[in-house]
Amino acid sequence: MVELSREAKIEMLRRMLRIRIFDEVASELQAKGEIPGPLHTSIGQEAEVVGACMALSRQDYMTGNHRSHGHPIGKGAPLGPLMAELLGKETGVCKGRGGSMHLADFAIGSLGESGIVGAGMPIATGAALSAKLRGTDQVALTFFGDGASNTGPFHESLNLAAIWKLPVIFLCENNGYAVVTRASDMVAVENIADRATAYAIPGEVVDGQNVLSVHEATSRAVKRAQSGAGPTLLDVRTYRYRDHAEFGKMGDSVASYRSKEEVEAARKRDPIEMFAKILIEGEVLDEDGVASVRAQVISEVDEAVDFARASAFPDVSTAFDFLFVDAVAPRH
Amino acid sequence: MSSILSDEVHQDSSNSTVKQTFLEATVATIVEEMRADPTVFTMGQDIRGGVYGAYPLAEFGERVRSLPISEAANVGAAIGSAMTGMRPVLDMTIATFLYSAMDQIVNQAAKSRFLFGGQARLPLVIRCTMFYGSSQAAHHNDRAYAMFMHVPGLKIVVPSSPVNAKGLMRAAIRSNDPVLVFEDSTLWGTRGDVPVDPDFIIPLGEAEIRQRGSDVTVIGIGQSLRTVDQALKLLGKDGISIEVIDPRSLCPFDWKTVLASVDKTRRVVVVDNGPMTCGVAGEILATVAEHFHGRLLAPPKRVTAPDMHLAFSPQLEKALLPSREAVAEAIKSTFEYRGKEI
């Protein structure tokens, strides 16, 4: 077991609540039209994100995917610039250029989320290669979904990381669905973890609703990576409460693809409620203490919204910024 | 291939040069940059086997990395390492293999800096070689640079000689942005005098005026400049004063030099071995037309390959690439044009 301090456990709760409340508020803003574009929430998946991120150090690298808000929040990014990014503001973490699917906060090791399924895996593999060549003990963790485990870059990255024994953790956020299609219909193996066998690396099924289990498994993978033994594939079972994406004014475009009973059953294992119970039973916090963390997070998210709303949109005169480092004016 | 750095050096104090082939100059530059900067490293399929140029393996150890045949992961690994402080030179070997990594090149390498609001730096070089004119057939013989010119965020160079290969490769490695280097297999063996100065560089976006003239501006891309040279010989001393320009870099593109030349000559011919539609030649002619509408002395002309795949059979392959005769005829007819009869 990895020993976690009281502060670390409270921080886990705080970050899970940040993800939950941030995404709840973002969904409301999106429905009202304040946030343009689609939105993919991590509600229900908070434990796997936070358990993994808290097994990393600030200087460790992370890449992710379209369901992107949770990852930088889990790794400790401040909420204001993230919310401002969703609103398309100049103070956004990506200056309003990337939006919901492309959050990145290099200051905390977040090398970027991606709107292309599977695309973050080779990049994390490269960040791990860089750490190895530079002789640091940094690791790289890449979040991807069950659907991404069918892409070429998944298999190419696992093989490359395995032959070079790179310090990468491949963390599959297996929520059972790619958009509205069941993983069991699309993935040839029973467990995505089984795919590790093909690359002679460890593959492990993890309870993604238990933040401590995810933290434990990720910490083992980090240790293995830092020892020079190479990558690990974690098949982390989780569940998203909401549909694939919020489409706002486009309406609910998803047909019924799962039963109410299935969603209700999943909600009975709510990662935040389960962890709050563990904290209370372990006398880390009492109920008031949990409520107080929740209240703090609510006001943090409110402040983030205020910050985002008060910020300006990028000036159109900056539309050509950020193409190159060594300036070349785009033709127009 | 022979040793890359110990070739005969002509000492003339200020500007020492060495006779090197295009490929030797390219690899020598990568080696020099690896010596000068510990963050530079190179990866490629079969690279340690020296199939496309030999590296001093003992000296560089794991900074010369042979890759599995996993193009998307190869490019992605270069991107991830570039984002985190390294300067990878990725040898994709054959240019058509870029297609297997299209998402990583177009969606990731080209867009990451922009999408992340300037947080990412991608000092990344992707080398690739176009194997046409040697019966490799259509899975190897594309001249695909124009396809990538359509993608904002990528810098693109097409060296036409050993000296350009050297200067442009150094600029590519020292660039802080992704650079695609399109090499031409038919030029790899050509020899020329190459400066030994370890800082010799050709800045990206600087065209070379290979020959000055006042009647017709002829612009050639990469290997097609050899066809242009042959066409000039055919034309002989025909009384046409021809200015020949090698843009060298397609992005950034040296519009200033090209437009200044056409401003002088008012006649332009572009020669390119790539297909015609949405090609480099079309882009140059469109820009020339926008700038000089009504002031050109003849219709702007392009000599390119047609919108067709190149065949395996040598006669068929050769037939579709711009010939010296076609280039000579284009220059001559452009010069002799005396207005269209209405």
Automatic annotation (TrEMBL), chain B:
Locate the coiled-coil region(s) and give their ranges: none
Which GO molecular function annotations are given, in alphabetical order? oxidoreductase activity
In this chain the Transketolase-like pyrimidine-binding domain maps to 20-190
Which protein is depicted? Alpha-ketoacid dehydrogenase subunit beta
Q: Which cofactor does it need?
A: thiamine diphosphate
Task: Give the Pfam families listed for this entry.
Answer: Transket_pyr, Transketolase_C
- Keyword line: Oxidoreductase, Thiamine pyrophosphate
Among PANTHER family, the record links this protein to:
PYRUVATE DEHYDROGENASE E1 COMPONENT BETA SUBUNIT, PYRUVATE DEHYDROGENASE E1 COMPONENT SUBUNIT BETA
